[in-house]
Amino acid sequence: MQIEINDVQGKALSYLIAKAIWPEKEFPAWWFIDRPDGCYLPSLDEDTGNPVDGFYPQSDWGLSGPFLSKHDIFPFKCSGNDYGAHLPEYVEHAGKRVRFETFGPSPLVAAWRCFVASRLGQYSGCCIMVDVPDEFSEES
């Protein structure tokens, strides 16, 4: 099913983060659904290759901060309790020059949504849509 990127959360977001980081790998949805603390995946730190048990990067600055910084994704504070994140420059995406900007309830959620959008998103009018397996329909 297609969901607007700013509506993706929880385990569905963890799944999409993994797909965006490692597009060549297959990840069954049940890995993310059946493990309340996340799943066992390779590290985001390509230098060490240490595995991550409990892959839930949208709540872990130690895991996410260096990775997002390396990819130039910057979170920012919006009004109220909302946060946004963007890539600093316009990029070529599906034949258009676009600037990915997403929002969320925390800086990490907003930043990871931006990363996922830049790798897996499709523009549909003014929204960025992503494909999420039907198994996540109750969560997203």
Oligomer: single chain
End-to-end distance, in Å? 10 Å
Which value, in Å, is the CA radius of gyration? 14 Å
What would you call the shape? globular
Share of β-strand residues: 25-35%
Description:
The chain has helices spanning 10-21, 29-33, 61-70, 107-120; strands spanning 2-4, 39-41, 52-55, 74-77, 83-86, 91-93, 96-98, 101-104, 122-124, 127-131. The protein is α+β, with helices and mostly antiparallel strands and 140 residues long. The mean pLDDT is 82. The N and C termini lie close together (10 Å). The longest helix is centred in the C-terminal third of the chain and has 14 residues, at 107-120. It is globular. It has one domain (2-39, 54-134). Helix content is 29%, strand content 26%. Keywords: Plasmid. Pfam families: Phage_P22_NinX (PF10765). InterPro entries: Phage_P22_NinX.
Reconstruct the topology from this structure.
Elements: E1 2-4, H1 10-21, H2 29-33, E2 39-41, E3 52-55, H3 61-70, E4 74-77, E5 83-86, E6 91-93, E7 96-98, E8 101-104, H4 107-120, E9 122-124, E10 127-131
Antiparallel strand pairs: 1-10, 2-3, 4-5, 5-8, 6-7, 9-10
